[in-house]
Amino acid sequence: MNNTLSSISSALIVAPYQLNIWFGIFLWVTGNLGSIGEYARFYAYFDNYIEIVFTAICPPVAVIVLTYLLIRSVRNVIQRQIISGNNAQVATVAYRSNLEQMDSRLTSMLILQSMIVIITYIPFAAELVYTNVTQN
């Protein structure tokens, strides 16, 4: 698994350089010196909006999705624990309330964390959008 993570990490590090190389080859192959400025402006425009999407919008969305998936997974595990514990009826009530209490605490913690991430990203995203939109 560590090899997979390191290969993904190295691929993510190399990707911007490869994109720049392909873009440079594209500019070189087209050969239109008069339109290189147009391509550069398009690339700058495209780069600004890609930066907005991946830097300001994706992290909060990823946190929200991962929080939802984690809450759903924990509830599924707790449901399986409660169902498997139904054989001992007396101990099940105390066990169920303890699991539901842990589920409630974990859910509130994850929702609070998601809200903090979203609240802290709003100023950053607004500033990034404003800067990129108002550039020449």
TrEMBL record:
This is G-protein coupled receptors family 1 profile domain-containing protein. The lineage of its organism: Eukaryota, Metazoa, Spiralia, Gnathifera, Rotifera. Keywords: Membrane, Transmembrane, Transmembrane helix. It comes from Rotaria magnacalcarata. It comes from the Eukaryota. The chain crosses the membrane at residues 12-29, 49-71, 106-126.
